[in-house]
Design brief:
Elements: H1 17-22, H2 30-48, E1 63-64, H3 65-72, H4 77-86, E2 101-102, H5 104-117, E3 135-139, H6 148-161, E4 166-170, H7 176-180, H8 193-213, H9 223-228, H10 233-236, E5 238-239, E6 245-248, H11 257-267, H12 276-283, H13 286-289, E7 292-296, H14 303-311, E8 314-320, H15 323-353, E9 365-371, H16 375-389, H17 402-409, H18 424-458
């Protein structure tokens, strides 16, 4: 017996053109984009403030005794409580009973106490060599949606919880990192833009000195360059709700850099535009003020990304375990090679002509990190990617959990989520995704610091 019920046709059959036309709005002109942008700005502000306090400020939550003893200070909870009871000058936290809650500042004070008074066999404070500059870590890939900003934000928070002083520089004009860190940026003059302009201005000043010495007229500065020469990187740094994370933020007008930098380069072909951010960090001791500087880059290999990569000691490349992202990341490495090899060739031709030593770009390490990993679907392809990229690959594959998704909806990091909002296992799994990533990145940072220290002692 056969059924008379017909299988329905797919939805793209039987569309009536007249009905379709009746559902269209009037033709869209440019002012309609302005209206959409205004709605988007209002919605973005509303959504970004989901994680804010009622007074409109973003604040870091407090941490429980359980979290401190499990993740931050390697002591048993009973011993932790005994130490607090025996030292009433130490922060005592808030709350009653066995669980108390502490601010991150208080945890830093407790960590310092245990480091001074506790067992020498335990690591209460993370290692940081004296006298060496901060390590600069760029998170980059020109494929969008691979988790660059999420990875960068969680590395910053992981490092901060580990006791490091962190500066985050948002180089993506979308400003997502700035939103996560609660930053307020009114225009491009509060972003990295004036740092690039100032570097060009400094170059022009040196060039003008040479011109005047030869009897030529100096180049006139426009108002942008004049203003930029007054800007210090320190003017741009703002505090965040994390006591040991500072921020140079971003907003839409930062994208103007991608148009302005080539104009400046045309005005002076000798300007090494790729060194602008490096010079800004170097010029006023910024590298000495922090332990780790994290650079969040836009999803393109433009001038901002080139500056970030040139300034970086370590490069982190997030990617998903899909063919398209594998293919795109391979092309990204190809673009890195052609871009930086071209700069080296051009610069070294001039250096050889002038009898100067040649230079080359070098990075302490590169790690490609698989994000949003689904082991039930992507293990085979991840293994293939691992085989092709070899020592560029991080060992840990960062899974996507419910906790990560919920934190993203609150425009926050998972470390900002109160563990009482989840069952204990969910919280532990959610943290693991970024704890493991931080462990690998931290190992690279410590190893490169150690190598630098040995080289300095040999000299």
């Amino acid at each position: 017996m056969t059924s008379s019920k017909k299988t329905p046709l797919p939805p793209y059959f039987g569309i009536n053109p007249a009905d379709a036309a009746s559902r269209l709005s009037d033709p869209i002109d440019t002012t309609r984009f302005a209206k959409a942008a205004a709605f988007g700005a209002r919605g973005r502000e509303d959504l970004a403030k989901r994680g804010y306090s009622p007074d409109g400020k973003k604040r870091l939550r407090k941490f429980s005794t359980w979290e401190i003893c499990r993740y931050l200070i390697p002591v048993a909870p009973a011993h932790f409580r005994r130490v607090l009871n025996a030292n009433d000058t130490l922060p005592q936290g808030e709350g009653t009973g066995g669980t108390k809650w502490f601010t991150l500042d208080e945890i830093m004070a407790l960590r310092a106490h245990f480091d001074a008074e506790g067992s020498s066999a335990k690591e209460y404070k993370s290692w940081r060599p004296e006298g060496l500059p901060a390590k600069v870590v760029a998170v980059a890939n020109f494929k969008g949606g691979v988790g660059k900003t999420s990875t960068c934000a969680h590395l910053a928070m992981s490092a901060a919880l580990d006791g490091y002083r962190v500066l985050v520089i948002d180089l993506d004009s979308q400003g997502s990192m700035t939103s996560i860190m609660g930053g307020q940026v009114e225009d491009e003059w509060q972003t990295a833009f004036p740092l690039l302009a100032k570097d060009f201005g400094n170059h022009l000043e040196a060039e003008n000195q040479r011109r005047v010495a030869k009897g030529d007229s100096p180049v006139e500065f426009d108002e942008t360059i004049k203003e930029a020469l007054k800007v210090s990187p320190r003017n741009l740094i703002q505090e965040t709700h994390w006591p040991n994370i500072d921020l140079i933020g971003a907003q839409l007008n930062l994208y103007w850099s991608e148009f302005q930098v080539p104009v400046w380069r045309m005005q002076s072909r000798s300007w090494p535009l790729w060194d602008a951010l490096t010079n800004a960090l170097d010029s006023e001791g910024i590298l000495d003020d922090y332990d780790i500087i994290l650079l969040d880059t836009p999803p393109a290999l433009g001038y901002l990304t080139i500056n970030a990569l040139a300034a970086a000691d370590i490069l982190i490349v997030p990617m998903g375990a899909s063919f398209l992202e594998f293919d795109s990341t391979g092309r990204f490495f190809d673009m890195l090679y052609s871009t930086f090899a071209s700069i080296e060739d051009g610069e070294n031709r001039a250096r050889r002509r002038d009898g100067m030593p040649e230079f080359k770009f070098e990075w302490d390490a590169v790690r490609t990190l698989i994000t949003r990993f689904d082991p039930s679907q992507q293990t085979d392809l991840a293994n293939v990617i691992q085989a092709y990229f070899g020592d560029f690959m991080a060992t840990y594959r960062q899974g996507y959990t419910a906790m990560v998704g919920q934190a993203a909806e609150q425009v926050s990091g998972i470390y900002e989520a109160d563990h009482r909002q989840f069952n204990r296992d969910t919280y532990v799994r959610g943290r693991e995704a970024f704890d493991e990533t931080w462990a690998e990145v931290k190992e690279v940072i410590l190893g490169s610091w150690w190598r630098d220290l040995q080289m300095e002692q040999e000299d």
